[in-house]
Each structure stands twice: as structure tokens, then as C-alpha cells.
Write a structure and sequence with these properties.
Blueprint: H1 9-21, E1 24-27, H2 29-36, H3 40-47, E2 54-55, E3 66-68, E4 71-76, E5 81-84, H4 112-116, H5 118-135, E6 139-150, E7 171-180, E8 182-184, E9 187-190, E10 196-200, E11 208-212, E12 217-220, E13 223-225, E14 233-243
Antiparallel strand pairs: 1-11, 2-3, 3-6, 4-5, 4-6, 6-14, 7-11, 7-14, 8-13, 9-10, 9-12
Helix pairs in contact: 1-5
Length: about 250
């Protein structure tokens, strides 16, 4: 499986146009599947990686609703070289993440199965193609965050516990992998003055929201179970893209 450079070019062009014009874009599950070459069985197999996430023990609100892992890569979008980086802690300044920022958070690494899944590579390369066309650069620092947000009758699941925010990166993307027995999880993008620019509920595996994190803020509403007697969770893959810089600080 690999991203297509010829299939459905309007999806790439429209994403580039929207990101350039106002900073956001919603890629449909159909477009993402076509661009990555993913089939329904591929998405089903990919979703199984989310059964292997671990509890996030850094939640300063005391919540036990978030499970995750973390991976770090460098991408050369011109050559397709995607190089895994040594595993280390994840850090956000407190000014970016007032709830959990300001500390080095040591999350478990991506599993070998997750890293080696062809869909992981195809997703990153597809996004790298889009963002490189927007920015005119091709080398990227890429961070992957698979999340499972769990909700029970006793605890809301909070995909964005810090409220309307930015992540402190160049581009941030949210890919839906699955929704199980949940209501809520409505995603919104905002201008810096608070004007809401887009609201959507990622509903199908492959639906993906893209945002220029330097220009926009984003938020996701809490989750509650539909049937309180059954397990309930929302699985997403957050992928952050930042420029790599040379000695002058100019993106390469």
C-alpha cells in the first residue's frame, strides 16, 4: 500500500487550496482511502492497533479516559524517506497546553505492528505531499499520537480536555479510526478571534481534519455512551507536522 500521486488529484488540490486560503480542510474517508490505497479490510486491521494503547497517566484533571502511544519520525516528502527517530519524551510548553504542558511526558512507543503497518506510512506520505505543496518545503518533523478516548456512565470522555486550543506545531491532523457506542465528539476549527469556521463530526474510518495550527484553534466536544451497559470509545490518530530547519532556521 502506498499513497497515490495520480489517483483523484482534485482531493489534493482542494486540500492545498483550502489550507492556503484559510488554514483548514476536511478530507473525506473516501478521499483518504483513495489517496492511500486503503480498503475496508485495511481500515479494520488498522483499528486493531488501538486495542494495544496504554493509559495516559499524565492527565492533570485526574481523568482515566485517555489511552495513547507516541512515535516520532523525520519525513522527506520529495523522496518518500520516512525515518523513525529514537524514542523520547513528548513536550509541550504550558502556554500551549495549560492542562498537561510544562513537563516531559514519557509515553509508550508505537508497537512494531503499528509502525510496520503500510497504512501508517501511506497516511504520513499523503499528508506530507499536501503540506509540502502548501509550504514549498519537503522535510518534516512528524509526530504520531494514536488516542483512544473512553467514556462510561461515570466519566465523560474528553478528546480536548484543555478546551479550544492549538497544539504548538505547524499543521495538526485528526484521523478517525473508529467510533464505538458513543455520542458527541464534534470537531470545530476557529479563527484566532474565536469565529467558528468549520464544525464536523468525524464519522467514518478515514475521515480526516487538517488544520494550520499557526492560524487556527481547534476543539472537540466530550463523549458519552449511547448504551451505558456497553464499552464506549472513540479512536483517532493525531499527526503533527513541523518544519525541519537548517542552520539559518529556514525550512528545508
Amino acid at each position: 500500500m502506498s499513497p497515490s500521486t495520480t489517483a483523484h488529484p482534485p482531493a489534493i488540490s482542494t486540500a492545498v487550496d483550502d489550507l492556503s486560503a484559510w488554514g483548514g480542510h476536511l478530507l473525506s474517508a473516501a478521499d483518504v482511502s483513495l489517496l492511500t490505497g486503503a480498503t475496508a479490510p485495511d481500515w479494520d486491521a488498522y483499528a486493531r492497533h488501538w486495542d494495544d494503547l496504554l493509559l495516559d497517566e499524565y492527565m492533570q484533571d485526574g481523568g482515566t479516559y485517555r489511552h495513547r502511544r507516541y512515535g516520532h519520525y523525520v519525513l522527506d516528502a520529495a523522496t518518500g524517506d520516512l525515518a523513525a527517530q529514537p524514542h523520547g519524551p513528548y513536550y509541550q510548553p504550558r502556554m500551549v497546553n495549560p492542562l498537561n504542558g510544562g513537563v516531559r511526558r514519557h509515553f509508550a512507543p508505537l508497537t512494531d505492528a503499528f509502525r510496520d503497518d503500510p497504512l501508517t506510512r501511506a497516511l504520513v506520505l499523503t499528508l506530507g505531499d499536501i503540506f509540502s505543496r502548501v509550504e514549498g518545503v519537503h522535510r518534516w518533523d512528524v509526530k504520531l499520537h494514536p488516542f483512544r478516548i473512553v467514556t462510561t456512565p461515570d466519566q465523560q470522555g474528553r478528546p480536548a480536555p484543555q478546551g479550544v486550543h492549538r497544539d504548538g506545531t505547524a499543521f495538526v491532523t485528526s484521523l478517525l479510526v473508529g467510533r464505538t457506542n458513543v455520542t458527541g465528539g464534534e470537531s470545530s476549527l476557529y479563527a484566532q478571534d474565536g469565529t467558528r469556521l468549520l464544525t464536523t463530526t468525524l464519522a467514518r474510518p478515514g475521515d480526516q481534519l487538517l488544520a494550520d495550527d499557526r492560524r487556527l484553534l481547534h476543539d472537540v466536544t466530550p463523549l458519552t455512551p449511547v448504551d451505558p451497559t456497553r464499552p464506549a470509545h472513540r479512536d483517532v490518530l493525531i499527526i503533527d507536522f513541523d518544519h525541519l530547519a537548517d542552520e539559518t532556521g529556514r525550512g528545508l
